[in-house]
Design brief:
Elements lengths: L11 E7 L13 H17 L5 E12 L8 E11 L3 E11 L5 E14 L18
Antiparallel strand pairs: 1-3, 2-5, 3-4, 4-5
Bound molecules: coenzyme A.
């Protein structure tokens, strides 16, 4: 891990969003695709901590929607890098909603892989392997 990247145990805040009526599905709760879009953005924000260049989402390994989200709730997206590869990072995203009574509920968890790419979309290493690492 590069020296300028402080390892963190707890997921760090990447996004805080107020859920609006336009974000709802036909049942009146928040559409899962809206949560996924924000998870993707949050993952990018976390990946960008490792390098201010282009990153693309390569995979979303797993998404668990644990509880619904309602209009008017504030939703926080927190991220933690759980694996550093040569040109990819794996990011855990946890999503918490503040209910209208002020309580917080874990509503979603996901894991994504993002790949550092050049302007042509080809993967590029974002860090040099540590000395002695056969890579
Ligand atoms: C992501 C992408 C650049 C990977 O291209 P590729 O030719 O497979 O890249 P490479 O074989 O050089 O692999 C590069 C790294 O990506 C990782 N990777 C590639 N595909 C992956 C996947 N599906 N899931 C997780 N990691 C993946 C590799 O393990 C490798 O990691 P490492 O360097 O840390 O060891 C390419 O598949 C792509 O452009 N996909 C579309 C991305 C996109 O548009 N996202 C938005 C969707 S709307």
């Amino acid at each position: 891990m590069p020296a300028d990247f402080p390892p963190v145990d707890a997921p760090q805040l990447a996004l805080r969003v107020l859920m609006m009526p336009r974000d709802t599905n036909h049942q009146g709760t928040i559409f899962g695709g809206i949560i996924l879009a924000h998870i993707d953005q949050a993952g990018y924000i976390e990946a960008r901590r490792h390098g201010l260049h282009r990153w693309v989402t390569a995979s979303v390994d797993r998404v668990d929607f644990k509880a619904p989200v309602e209009v008017g709730e504030v939703v926080e997206f927190r991220c933690r890098t759980i694996r550093l590869g040569r040109s990819s990072v794996t990011v855990q995203v946890v999503v918490d909603a503040q209910r209208l009574d002020g309580t917080w509920v874990r509503v979603t968890e996901a894991q994504l892989a993002l790949v550092s790419v050049d302007a042509t979309g080809h993967s590029i290493p974002f860090r040099e392997p540590p000395a002695g690492d056969p890579a």
